[in-house]
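Changelog-adjacent note: as of this version, every example in the card shows the full chain rather than a window. The one below runs 620 residues end to end.
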Amino acid sequence: MHDRYEKIPVQVYPEASEAARRVAAEIADLIQSREDEGRGAVLGLATGSTPIPVYRELIRLHREEGLSFANVTTFNLDEYSGLDADHPESYTRFMQEQLFDHVDIKPSHTNIPNATGSSTEEKERRCAEYEQKIREAGGIDIQLLGIGRSGHIGFNEPGSPVTSSTRVVTLDRITRLDASADFQGFHNVPRTAVTMGVGTILEADKVFLLAWGKGKADVVRIAVEEKETEAVTASFLQRHDNAEFVLDEAAAGDLTRIRYPWLVDSIVWTPRMQQRAISWASGKTEKPILKLVDDDYNESGLGELIAEGENSYSLNIATFNDYQNTVTGWPGGKPGANDETRPEKSDPQPKHAVIFSAEPQDALVSMGATINRLKEQGHLVTLVALTSGNLRVRDQEALKLIRCLQTVEQSKSPEWQIPPHLGEHVGSLAEGDAEAALNPDIRHLKSVILRAEVVDSASALGISESSLKFLGLPFYDSGRFRQFHVTEDDHEQVASVLEELNPNLVFLAGSVADPMSPQGITFQLVAKAITSFPITTDHIWTYRHREEMLKPYEIDMAVPISPVQHELKANALQRLRAVVDLRNDEALGEDRAVARAYDKLGLAEYEAMEVFQRLEVAEL
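Full-length structure tokens:
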């Protein structure tokens, strides 16, 4: 019945890895069937973190099951303008590192748009030649796509016509912001790119659009359920006869059948689902929960809730109390209190709270006020920075520190001398050399910079340096965004620190993150460690970072933040200056937005809130 909402076929899988195996299997079947026929297969390929699980599964099929790419021809969607093929962020290099170097595909059979050229005429000619090569290959059999936050496919930004072909485009601001960490700052992200057009994509025989993580949920819903529009070019896939969205559960979370299943079919009304539906009716009618009446239920499609003897008043009271019980100023439990309806148990007191932060700044940004509250209420707090976070630090910060050290060296005695190899990188960093930013010495220097800022920021929240642990997991320091490979050493380090600390209260993020992001990877590492051996943890709480904030019905604990505490958190975040895409104002604004959402439901009005969702060990 969800077909009346969804205008494109959608398949939802519990995890991205399972979805990737299914897509890779279809690609492998195509390659094999074409080989049996004595023909080649033509694949349209995408870049970014989304298709990586598919590429890794294809590599496994090649190595372990003999899948050959000898008769495969590929065409990539896009390429940034002005980047050499060996630039760390060029899509040419991406494809080599992520797929081509690991299978037996012929280099002459791989095609990536040529984004070089000095004149408009030359660029247009190369775009036309790319279209011609696709036609000469017989067209694309299977096209892989991701989807950007602005709803783009390829680099077909909002406004791209449905008939567009391969061409030079100007990148949307949102697209460039999302790439700013990769390029060490927004100003370094190319302004233009070459992309296969929407019309070219729609000519493929089969199209898979892949999406992982909660951050893609809203734009996926728009593309799947709303009308076609140039504002969301992925929506044009609605007119394709053989297009399919392949999603993990997080990316599918905003689809009507998942978010509002009672609108699609009859359901079993669990307490959580009832809470979700009534809060939705509150928003739809713009009434606080306690003011809803029977007609509001009926007109919101919730008549069955009051059809069997229940009445709106009793349902309102029960739901209001459920929300009220999530609000607590005691995130570690209130000593001596009756904790029957409180989010966190009162015993033991004090607790040892371990807060895992994928990159060092994450937890401070997302739950800084709660960290301060836990510390003030006498709990032992340990903040564990799982990775060094150096990939987020601006080149300019490293350059500034090197120059400061050079100035000190020139004016002081020999003991102030700095390692000569650091000075050797000044020119490269100043010129924006992308390879220099990946140099191990520079990355280590950036780790030092971020660590110092996190120590300073944490101190503003009452957390001493002795309460901070910086693991620097090797998967991060030996890789880069979209290039991470987890090793046994990563697992061992996380398990070791968890066993050492033996917490009875855990906070972590990444449960609905892109599985290839630092947040998604570290969540899986911690989850595996927790389930590997018994610990005394009573509660595990997840917080959101870089993903869509928790909605009221998803919240199990809401920690109110007073104006004074909000200012304290703002002051702490101001001390984090080195990170490329740190959006402190957004984080502080989200804290206020959650408080407003509770206020609209009719609960007490607070300045801001930090919110959490309970996660049981069995769910990991």
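Structural remarks: Residues 359-619 form a domain with the Rossmann fold fold (CATH 3.40.50.10320).
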